[in-house]
Amino acid sequence: MQVQFCGAAREVTGSCHLFTVGDTRFLVDCGMHQGGREAEAENFAPFPFDPTQIDFLLLTHAHIDHSGLIPKLSSEGFSGPVYATPATADLAHIMLLDSAYIHEMEAEWRDRKARRAGRTAGTPLYTRKDAEGSLRLFRAHPYGLELEPAPGVKCRFLDAGHILGSSIMELWLKEGGLDIKVVVSGDLGQPDQPIIRDPEVVTEADYLLLESTYGDRLHGAEIDPLEELAGILEEAKASGGNVVIPAFAVGRTQELVYFLRQICEGHNMDMPIYVDSPLAKDATDIFRRHREEFDEEALHIRENGPLFSFPGLQYTESADESRELNTKSGVIIISASGMAEAGRIKHHLKHNLWRPESHIVIVGYQAPGTRGRRILDGEKVVRIYGEDIAVRAKVHLISGLSAHADRDQLLDWAAHMGPPRLTFLVHGEALSSFSLASTLEERLGFRVEVPRKYQTFPLE
């Protein structure tokens, strides 16, 4: 019995963990790497295992860094079921099709560029047909009910409080006379996030796979993110500039809409708000369908009116509507992708980064090498669609809006269980993971490993 860490090991993206229990081999997550050309090359690299030999896959949630290579896995021979919560299955449907569209469009753009230079371009990472094939493998399974996908393997999904449908996984593994319990945290959310419920507590585990995205820092709870965002909007309104917010289409966009409703009502803010992402619009429709996952506050608001609609908010769909936004001033634009690597956000950054009166608001984790990270780190010029764009807009980071638990919140969650035999820290940059490892050892007496990519550990 063993686990191999095939991604998100000393890095944040590319979550993929391979478990072997007797003759059964299964994956927890199969996500894309994000973060520039090096990460893109990793996505095209062969899997470190034979996809035809994987019996099933357990998906913690729908974000692309956890789900984005499932179409590739399927196209290379994986044919087993993909188990996920109902909301995750619904979200994965739109996200994987959208991801395939992006890969096809980027491959077409590279092909045109290569032909002009007399070269031959490569193929897309996967196609819409690949994504559609993988989606037929999904099997929805609710929170709290035990699942036995293979002899010797039992599983239960608990609410991770990260995005709609996100799950913590309890795994009970049996091989010969050995019975062990493994807990995979997935991405843990902050307590008291809007719309969704808090992460559920787990009280025991023999082995723990714990995320460490913010394992070396706090989110700055002394600053109310709602007031911080309101202050930025008031400053932009006074200068006549636009506010551009790169945001993940799933989770962060809905949370921003939730907060902007409060700001508009409490601060008499009348700046037009545009959600410019067809994927975000589709994701919001899925949120509306899964009210069973809302927290009490969101349910109360929903009883008194639409949760994701209010005066001044518009959802754009067509490319023409999107382009028209770049002729406007004094507006708020929320657009994907969250790390500014793809999608319509690139156009809005191209038209606003060079304007001193504009504001760029970063509200989520930015992987190293991504355009969002470079902007956040203070680069003076970034390249968008082959053009150098000066960064003269004001750049803001609102860390309190993160969908990930910070260091102390991770510690609070882990403290509910007695020290596992061994804790593996994943889904974090090396500095963050090693910092959290030291804190877990000192404060909770945990024994901790920070695995290297492709490293294998026996589960004894």
Describe the protein's architecture and organization.
- With 460 residues, this protein is an alpha/beta fold.
- The chain has two domains: 2-217 and 403-458, Ribonuclease Z/Hydroxyacylglutathione hydrolase-like (Metallo-beta-lactamase, Chain A, 4-Layer Sandwich), CATH 3.60.15.10; 225-401, 3-Layer(aba) Sandwich (Rossmann fold), CATH 3.40.50.
- It has helices at 37-44, 64-67, 70-75, 86-116, 128-135, 225-239, 252-266, 278-289, 296-303, 319-325, 345-352, 371-376, 407-414, 430-444, and strands at 2-7, 16-21, 24-28, 56-58, 82-84, 138-140, 147-150, 153-159, 167-175, 178-184, 207-211, 243-246, 273-276, 313-316, 332-335, 359-362, 381-384, 387-390, 394-397, 422-426, 448-449, 456-458.
- The strands form four sheets. A seven-stranded mixed sheet has the order 6-5-4-3-2-1-22. It has a seven-stranded mixed sheet with strand order 7-8-9-10-11-20-21, with helices on one face. Strands 14-13-15-12-16-19 form a six-stranded parallel sheet, with helices on both faces.
- A hairpin with a 2-residue loop joins strand 7 (147-150) and strand 8 (153-159).
- Helix 4 runs antiparallel to helix 8 (278-289) and helix 6 (225-239) packs across helix 7 (252-266).
- The relative contact order is 0.15.
